[in-house]
Each structure stands twice: as structure tokens, then as C-alpha cells.
Design brief:
It contains 12 helices and 18 strands. By secondary structure, it is an alpha/beta fold. The strands form 4 sheets. It has an 8-stranded mixed beta sheet, sandwiched between helices. It has a 6-stranded antiparallel beta sheet with strand order 14-15-13-16-18-17. Strands 4-5 form a two-stranded antiparallel ribbon. The protein binds aspartic acid (ASP) and magnesium ion.
């Protein structure tokens, strides 16, 4: 009998009725002849509320204690779900991350999994039980509780699926799959049948909020077949897997955007070795995830450096950049919080020239100014004004006819 890992997000479990529905879906899967390991997130807004309370008490709570606190959310969810399953007459057993042997490093609040020991899960499966595991958490070698970064239950599910050699890792959420655009921004967005790991990585990295980025990376590295689908319907979702031929025909898989970004410029820095490292090493040491970086052609030995970073990290960026500007006697600096990034992702870009040009043309036809551009082999991203972001997503979606099924 094969194993199916099913992950249920917080919205899918918000309220007793939904918990009962999830329980019955799990029991149905079990009765269809599969072993089920269910990974759950904290119910509803639990994690946000716990974080909020911690920050009411202290502006920068100790990270170890934050993890101790946040991990409780998932612990509530696993027990409630196990209770709901027993009520349906099936045997279930719930485990915390530490109990199933999810061992992580000590990077509290964004720990990385170092090993997964699944023997306990296998023992319970062999007894015919449904195993429920708390997502988003693990423990260090010394048994201190850690969490895996926001959205980390996806990571738990994918890691368990990899280690258990599961047939599939199903991610149940409140949308029916991965779309060509966020359906809340573009009502004509179309659900994708299948997306390659590479494309999903770019989609997740550029603002598609369906899967945690790290979980996609892990899935790719361990060849885990992932399906994103809705817990509110029985419609098949989107499969994420190795590149397949069908996909080579769909040039573009989707358009994404990110609003919570900031743009920082340092004007007039000396154009000599060691400057970029000074700025970006300092930011990296502070844990800032710098996104795009642009350095101008230098003029008379001085140049400008512009970069983008998550808006929430702006206070750190200000501190670091203010220091660098003083130290290097740079001409000035600017901080811009009103930007957004719109990205176009598709594996077909590799073999189809002109995609970027077409995207720029669409933006220009709509009077949208491009402030920065960055590309990978399967992605083009543009920084634009935040106020333009919805019309940019819609215009690009329309311009590339993403609402239409690709010809197969
Ligand atoms: N409950 C955690 C969060 O809200 C983990 C998750 O939802 O996957 O980030
Ligand atoms: Mg959540």
C-alpha cells in the first residue's frame, strides 16, 4: 500500500466544521486503500495572532522563545484533527515535529531541516493508523523547538513525502491550484494542469503565494511529486514535477507580483573593488534577502548602486546603508517604499526570443514605467510603481493571452 502525504493549511482547518471535513477527507483517502500521513498548519490566524502578542510584549522577542510559542499553533491543530478522525471510527495518532524526528539546525524562526527520521511514522502506519504531524516545526539536536519559516508546513509535508517515498504530496489549500495569475487580481486567471519545479521555484520566488519557496526547492532536489489542490472541492489541482514535454509548448506559465518591496539607491560611490561586497555583506550579515541589484556604468570613477529588498527590512537597510554612505563618503542615498515587482515566468522563454521585449511593450503601451529589470533563463522581472501593479498584471495576462489554454 502506497503512502500519500496530505498537507492542510490553516484556512482549511478554521473552525470545527472544517476540521471535521478534513478528517473525513483523510478517512476517505485511507478507505480508498492508501496510507495517509497528514501534515497540518495552525488553525486560521493562530500564527499571526501569536506573533502579534509576542510583539506587543517586546519589539524584538528572543527567537528561541518565538519558536517555542509559534510551534504551539500546530500542536493544537494536530490534536483536534486526531480527535476528529477518531470520532469517525478510524485510528489516528498525532505527533509534533520533534516527536517524528524532524531535526533542524539552530537558526530559530527559519531553521533548515538536517535530517528526518521517519521510523516512528512507519511503525504507526504499519499498525494501520493515520499519522498526523505538526507542520512548520522541528527540533535541534539538543531538543530545542524550532520553526521552519512562515508557510513552513509545506516544507514539513514535502520532507516527509521525500523520506517516506510517498506516491504524492498533496498540498490542500483554499485555492484550486497554481494559476496563471493571482485570481484576486486577474479574474480571468487560468488554473495550470502541470508546472515544472523550475517554473514553480520562480513563481514562488516572485510572489505566487501558493507554496513555500524552500519546499519547492526540497521537492525538486528529492523528486517529490507535489499537487496543489483545494480542500473545499474535489477538483484535481496543479501537479508540480519534473519538466515534461507537454509543458515545452506552453511558453509562459504565469505572471506574478510582489508589493512589499523597497528600492534603495546609493549615489556616487567609488568604482573600485570591494565596494559591492562592503554593502551586500553587511546586509547579508543582518539577514536581509536582497533581491535585484543594479550597478550603473561608472562615470569619472564613481557609480550608483541600486537594490531592492523586502519592505519590512527597510529599517535594517537604512542602518546599514547610512553607515556605508558615511564611511565611503558617497554622494547620497534614497529609499523608495512605493515600488512593486511584476514578473513573467515560463520555461518556454529559453527557446522563444522576444518574450522580454513583448512584456516591455505591453507595459509601455499601458503607460507603465519600468525602473529596474532582472532576468533569469525562465523569468523576466520589472520594478514599477506600486500603484501600477494590478493594471500591469492584468495587461501582461491579456497581452500574452494567458487566459487561453495553450495548444498541445
Ligand atoms: N502556521 C505557520 C504560518 O502561518 C506555518 C504554515 O502555515 O505553513 O506560517
Ligand atoms: Mg499559515
Amino acid at each position: 500500500m502506497g503512502i500519500i502525504v496530505q498537507k492542510y493549511g490553516g484556512t482549511s482547518l478554521a473552525g470545527s466544521e472544517r476540521i471535521k471535513k478534513v478528517a473525513s477527507r483523510i478517512v476517505t483517502t485511507k478507505k480508498q486503500g492508501h496510507n495517509v500521513v497528514a501534515v497540518v498548519s495552525a488553525v486560521g490566524d493562530t500564527t499571526d495572532n501569536l506573533l502579534k502578542q509576542a510583539h506587543e510584549i517586546a519589539p524584538a522577542p528572543p527567537k528561541r522563545e518565538l519558536d517555542m510559542l509559534l510551534a504551539t499553533g500546530e500542536q493544537i491543530a494536530i490534536s483536534l484533527l486526531a480527535i476528529a478522525i477518531s470520532e469517525l471510527g478510524c485510528e489516528a495518532i498525532s505527533f509534533t515535529g520533534a516527536q517524528v524526528g524532524i531535526v533542524t539546525d539552530t537558526a530559530y524562526t527559519k531553521a533548515r531541516i538536517v535530517s528526518v527520521r521517519v521510523q516512528r511514522v512507519i511503525n504507526e502506519i504499519n499498525k494501520g493508523k493515520i499519522v498526523i504531524v505538526a507542520g512548520f516545526q522541528g527540533a535541534t539536536k539538543n531538543n530545542d523547538i524550532t520553526t521552519l519559516g512562515r508557510g513552513g508546513s509545506d516544507m514539513t509535508a514535502v520532507a516527509l513525502a521525500a523520506e517516506l517515498n510517498a506516491d504524492i504530496c498533496q498540498i490542500y489549500t483554499d485555492v484550486e491550484g497554481v494559476y496563471t495569475a493571482d485570481p484576486r487580481l486577474e479574474p480571468k486567471a487560468r488554473k495550470l494542469e502541470v508546472v515544472s519545479y523550475e517554473e514553480m521555484l520562480e513563481l514562488a520566488a516572485t510572489g505566487a503565494n501558493v507554496l513555500q519557496l524552500r519546499s519547492v526547492e526540497y521537492g525538486r532536489n528529492h523528486h517529490v511529486l507535489i499537487e496543489v489542490r483545494s480542500s473545499f472541492s474535489d477538483t484535481p489541482g496543479t501537479l508540480i514535477k519534473e519538466d515534461v514535454q507537454v509543458m515545452e509548448k506552453a511558453i509562459i506559465s504565469g505572471v506574478t507580483c510582489e508589493k512589499e518591496e523597497a528600492k534603495i539607491t546609493i549615489f556616487g560611490v567609488p568604482d573600485r573593488p570591494g565596494i559591492a561586497v562592503k554593502v551586500f555583506k553587511a546586509l547579508a550579515d543582518e539577514g536581509v534577502n536582497v533581491d535585484m541589484i543594479l550597478q550603473n556604468v561608472s562615470d569619472k570613477g564613481i557609480t550608483d548602486i541600486t537594490f531592492t529588498a523586502p519592505r519590512r527590512d527597510l529599517p535594517i537597510c537604512r542602518r546599514v546603508v547610512d553607515g556605508v554612505v558615511d564611511e565611503l563618503k558617497a554622494r547620497g542615498k534614497s529609499y523608495d517604499e512605493e515600488i512593486a515587482k511584476v514578473s513573467l515566468v515560463g520555461a518556454g522563454m529559453k527557446s522563444h526570443p522576444g518574450i522580454a521585449a513583448h512584456m516591455f511593450e505591453i507595459l509601455s503601451d499601458n503607460g507603465i514605467n519600468i525602473e529596474m529589470i532582472s532576468t533569469s533563463s525562465i523569468k523576466v522581472s520589472c520594478v514599477i510603481r506600486e500603484k501600477d501593479v494590478v493594471s500591469a498584471v492584468q495587461a501582461i495576462h491579456r497581452g500574452f493571452e494567458l487566459d487561453k489554454e495553450p495548444i498541445k
